[in-house]
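User: Good morning. I'm curious how coenzyme A would be positioned relative to this chain. Could you predict the structure with it bound?
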Amino acid sequence: MERFRIDGDADRSYVIRVDEAEGPTDELVRVLIEIDLQTFSESTFSTYTAAAFLRQEKVYLLRADDVVIGTCVLMRCWDRPNEVMVLSMGIRPGWRGRGLGQRFLNGVLERLKTQGIRAVALMVGADDRRAIKVYEDVGFQHIQTALEDKRTGETLLMMRLQLQDDAPVATLHR
Ligand SMILES: CC(C)(COP(=O)(O)OP(=O)(O)OC[C@H]1O[C@@H](n2cnc3c(N)ncnc32)[C@H](O)[C@@H]1OP(=O)(O)O)[C@@H](O)C(=O)NCCC(=O)NCCS
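Assistant: Good morning! Here's the predicted structure, ligand included:
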């Protein structure tokens, strides 16, 4: 747990922490959908899928004091159960660009390590320079172009991080 001070607001500091979400409460479903809508041009979640991910997968929350300001949703890989994929990660707009993305991701990776997870994969828009910088800074490597969306013209890159032990990243790539 650490304190965080927003630039120019020296009188106010926040306790920043990363928590694992527990179960699909109405409030968490609402927050997951809300932060997603503030983050991506297409919505990732319906009420049903938000509740399903909260129930079945891992969802981490970035909190400032007790308010959720970021979410990170992870899915376990069926072929390699000790690997996960980041389905979505987002921070509320007013909190972006202050170093919290990197802190959030490091907090999530620490927890995954203690749970024996070996590798983490994700897809990110090739034009999303800020997100790519955050992922590279914590050690993710570019693996391949994952998808070219003909409708939007967006290219998605696949990135991967070997968290611990044995096989090098390249040999894990399908
Ligand atoms: C991506 C996201 C989680 C990152 O969190 P954040 O708190 O904004 O990021 P940070 O402040 O920790 O780090 C941003 C870094 O990118 C750099 N950066 C910002 N804009 C940049 C740009 N256009 N090009 C390159 N680097 C850039 C910053 O300088 C900073 O690097 P530094 O730590 O070396 O100074 C957040 O911005 C977000 O929610 N964005 C919208 C959703 C999204 O894109 N999610 C990821 C898709 S998978």
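The longest strand covers residues 67-76. The radius of gyration is 16 Å.
Let me know if you'd like a different ligand tried.
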